[in-house]
Each structure stands twice: as C-alpha cells, then as structure tokens.
Automatic annotation (TrEMBL), chain A:
GO CC, alphabetical: plasma membrane
Molecular function as annotated in GO: transmembrane transporter activity
Family: Belongs to the binding-protein-dependent transport system permease family. FecCD subfamily.
Organism: Pseudooceanicola atlanticus
This protein's name: Iron ABC transporter permease
A GO BP annotation: siderophore-iron import into cell
A Pfam short name: FecCD
SUPFAM superfamilies: ABC transporter involved in vitamin B12 uptake, BtuC
Amino acid sequence: MSSAAGTATLDGLRRSRRGRAAWLAVVLLGLALACILSVSLGTRDVGWADIVAGVSGTTETMAQAVVAVRVPRTVLAALAGAALGLAGAVMQGVTRNPLADPGILGVNAGAAMAVVIGMAWFGMQSLDAFLWTAILGAGIAACFVYAVGSLGRGGATPLKLALAGAATSIASASFTVAIILPRNDIAGGVRSWQIGGVGGASFDAILPCLPFLAVGLVLCLLSARSLNLLALGDEAAAGLGAQVAWARAAAALGAVLLCGATTAICGPIGFVGLVVPHMCRLLVGVDHRWLLPFSALTGGILLIVADVIGRIIARPSEMDVGIVTAFVGAPVFIWIVRQRRVRDL
Amino acid sequence: MSAVEHSDTTAWIGTLRAARSRGRLRLVAIMSALVVLGVLATLMTGPTLTTPGQLLRIFSGHDVPGASFAVTELRLPRATLSVLTGMSFGLGGVIFQTLLRNPLASPDIIGISAGASAAAVFAIVILGWSGAAVSVTAVIAGLGIALLIYLLAWRDRVSGARLILVGIGLAAMLDSLIAYVLSRAPSWTLQDALRWLTGSVNGATLDEALPLMLALLVLGGLLLARRGNLEAMRLGDDTAAALGVPLARDKVIAVMAAVGLIAVATAVSGPIAFVAFLSGPIAKRIAGPGRSPLIPAALVGALLVLIGDYTGQHLLAGRFPVGVVTGALGAPYLIYLIIRSNRTGRET
C-alpha cells in the first residue's frame, strides 16, 4: 500500500503545473456556472431580468423574491459542499482509507444526535449552541468509530471502519428517534433538518458558522504537507520529520470542525466527502496541496448541482439535497469498492 | 497406548458428548422458558394487570369482562408477532454472520433489511397495498437486493469484505429512498413513519402473523436441517469443502432462506433495529463455542423483541416502538466489543 502510494505521489508530483492551472480554471468556471444555474432554476421559472434584479436585492415581483431566496441557498450549498468535500479529503488522508466520508463513518450522525439532544433536553434554540454541540458530537463520533474500527488484527481497515460507522449511525439514529418521539413539539423540525437540506437558508443563519468553517478550513489546508508525508506510511513520515500524532490530530480536528458546522446548519449530508476527493484525484493527482483546495471547490459545485437537481426532479415540490447526494454517491462508493483489491479492504 | 486406556478415553469422550448435548438441551429449555415468561408478561401487563388465573379463563373460552378484549385482540397478537419476528431476525442474522464470518455483517447493516423496507414502504405508501402483497413485495425486493449486492461484489470471485462494503453503500441509498418516500406521503404520521425506520409491533393483528409463521416453519426448518453444514462453513470455505459440504448449493440455500426470513419479518414489523445484529453474538456467547448457534439465536431474537417491546411500552416514560429500544442496545454492544478486544487482543 505505502509503496503504491509512494509511486502515485511521485506520479502526481510529475503532473505539470500548467495542467493543474487549467483544471483550476475549469473548476472555477464550473462553480460560477453552478451558481448561475442554482439562482435561475427551480420550482418557479424566472426570466433573466428578474434574476439580475433579484440578485441585486430587489424583491418587488414574485419572481424577483424567489431569486432573492435562492441566493443565500446557493451560498450555503457552496459552503457546505466545500466543507464536506475538504473534510472528506482530509479524512481519507488521515485514515489512509479510500472509503472515509463523514457520512459513512457516522460522524454526521453523531453531530445530528448531539444537536437533537441539545434541542430536546437543554432547550437549545440558537444556532450558536447548535454549532458547538454538533462539533462536539462529531468529534465524539469520530473518536468512537475510529476506536471500534481499529479493533483487532490489521488496525483500521476500510472494511472495519465502514462497518463501525454504519453500526454507529444506526445506533445514534435510534437514540435520536427515542429522544424526539415523545416530543411532538420538536419532531417536525428535527425530521426535516435530519434528511439534510439547504432549502431554508438565510444569511443570518450562515453568518455564525463562518468562523468555525474558517478555522476548519485553515487547519485542513495547513495539514496538506503533513498529509502528503502520512501517505507514505507512519514510519516513513516520522523519518521525514513529521510529528505523526500531532499532524493527524490537527487534520482530524479541522475535518471535525467542518463536518460539525455543516451538519449544524444543513443536517447530515452524506457522500459528498467521499465522491469529491476521488474525482479530484483523477484531475490533479494525490498531492494534498492541490487535492485539498480542489476538493473544496468541487464539493461546492457538487452540492449546488445536487440541490438544483433536487429542485427540478420532484417538481412542483423539492427533493432534499441529502437524498440526491446519496443517489449520486452510493454508486461511486460501490465503484471504488470494486476497484480495490481484496487485500486492501 | 494400551487397549484399556483407549477404551477409557472413548468412554470419557462419550460421557463428555452426552454431557454436552444435555447441557445444550438444558440451555434451549431455559431460553424457551424465558421466552414463555416474556410472552406471559406481555399478555398480563397493560393499563390494568391481568392475573394468570384470568388469562387461563380467557384462553379456555370464558369471557372475562374488561380483560378478554385487551388480551385476545391487543396483547396476544403483539406477543405472537414479537416472538415470530424476533426468531426470524435472529435466525436470519446469525446465518449472515456465519457465512460472512464477521459479527458486524448482519442483514440490517449490509442492506437486506433496507431493501425489504424500501419495497414495503413503497408498496404501502405509493401503491396503497396491504397484507400478503406487501410481504411478497418485500421478499422479492430483499432477494433482488441480495442478488444485486452479490453481482456488484463479483470480480473474479466474491469476497466477503467487498460484499459487506457494497451492501453498506446500497443500504445508504435505500435509506435515502425510504426517507424520500415517507416525506412524499403527507398523511403519513410520524408514528407510522417511524415504524418503517426503526420497527415496531404496534397495532399487530394475528392475520399478519400467518405468513411469518409459515416462513419460519419452512425456511427455519430448512436452515436447521442444514446446520451441520453451516457449522462446517464457519471454519472457512476450504475446510468446509474438504469436509464434503456442497458449498455452492448450501450457500445459496442458506442465503435465500435467511433473506426470506428477514424480508417477511420486515414487511410485518418494519426493520426492528439491531435484533439481527445482536442475536448471533449473544447466542454464541451463551451457547459457547463448537455448538450450532441457530436455535439459541432465534430464541435470543425473540427475547430481545419481547423485552424491547415490554421496555418500550411499560418501563420507560412515554411509549417507544421496540426498534428504538433494541437500536439503542447496539451502542453498548459496540463499546463492549472495544473493551473485550482491548482486554484479549482478539480479532473482532
């Protein structure tokens, strides 16, 4: 595994800077295009004039008001997608596991359970409180799943981590149900929040998350170099002067911050963190200094597009973005599993 | 070794074997007694307590005012269904854990239950079906998903690890489908929806128990008849083949029977979380090594559902469907796995 990763790293480093710059331009263009699509498409058809007016803040007609609602929604989808994509790439690097994803590993489910506990038992209402609880829940779930997954011979194999994550997700879902069942007052809100949505976005709700996202982003991006070293195996990384344990902890903390903050606003959204890094590896290779920013950008595009698809596919109502990403992501997950040799699982 | 010693050893092994089979019978008897106790507790407890004497009179055909209706129409179907679904889940789960040789690889984690629930939810909510049609749909979908997992995991040959991972991926997709279908049904109340997310025996009727009973008799009987071969498969494919087990045929039969059991039970009660996951390991722990865990697992499953349902109905503040209680049991089990494996350093 480590020697294969080593060759792949060299191969990645050989890729030309110009090629990557070209891909960067393509991805940025794609992001712009996705934003335009997201603002203009939806349950209600709107004209170009209304779009321009709506984006600039005019809400005189119905169509303009619709556009004005879509703007924060697009921003939230871009931010959440970027956070999840980046977190997925970091988790895959930290665990050296191609199947790592905040959804598969049960981190999102843990964050969700923490938020529901906060709502039901501590009467939490504010988004600030949600954020802290969600991040705490994400951290606990990440540690728990990693502990269960690294039991036995062979350490944390992808198979054991995925099983531990799936079992943890089911258990925390049961706890969540147990908590909301007797509480009809919060049940409706929790349910819609659980499936994962960016529909009810507003700038007021996005604002408090920004510091968390920013810290998580910085931590993750700063870990790029150490993740490159970790890819060579723990011994090699230590030999090359990396503080293996600290590097892991810092990167994982960044990923947990990103997942927790995203789950607090949108509810658990799966598979973005899985699909995006794999796509990006095909584009720019395995160098984390390129892979991480690309994963963030592509994640944003993916979630915006998934949101747009959810709006179009179930007209006149909407399909939650978490459902769309599961339908896009699960086949990719299976494809990755099929690519692997049995030994690596 | 002299002839005398030799015959002594044979006799010694003979007594050991006899003791073991006696111990085995005793175990099954104790567990069956516990299941009967659980059924009695379910029959007796309600808003008003029914005494055993009253129960006896009700079942001998007398009409006891204030208790007859509750016992025969509400609690008896509930207890029957708890036992039957629990046995089906326990048996189906232990088959998967045995074949895939991984205690975490139970049908509720690798997508079989999710496939059956998705089909059942679709049939009930979108097509408006009920009864046997839903059961049949769930069974077909369960088998279809099992086949799909198998085909997707096929590359040269099927490996257990790949099969489990493909199943986890499909399960995530099917769970989303269930969530979507439920969100499309405005008249669907939270209670009904939760039945399909966690499983419950609320509102059970004896009519529902019939297909389950049949499935348990036919498929469970089939599995029990082959439990020797299944035991051999636990030692690994090569060993089992060397012991003369027709691997391909027996695997297909075992998987189809297990999927059938899981799917029929899911169609009736929803996917009662973690019963299939927990029954096998608990049964193995109780029965000890070297014994076929099938019957103990079925009994443990029945006990789990009975106790979970009783706890959810009477012991907690508020009423919970059984799946919530059993699902919450999964977390301590995982923690137990960590502690045990830290102590013994054993493979999980």
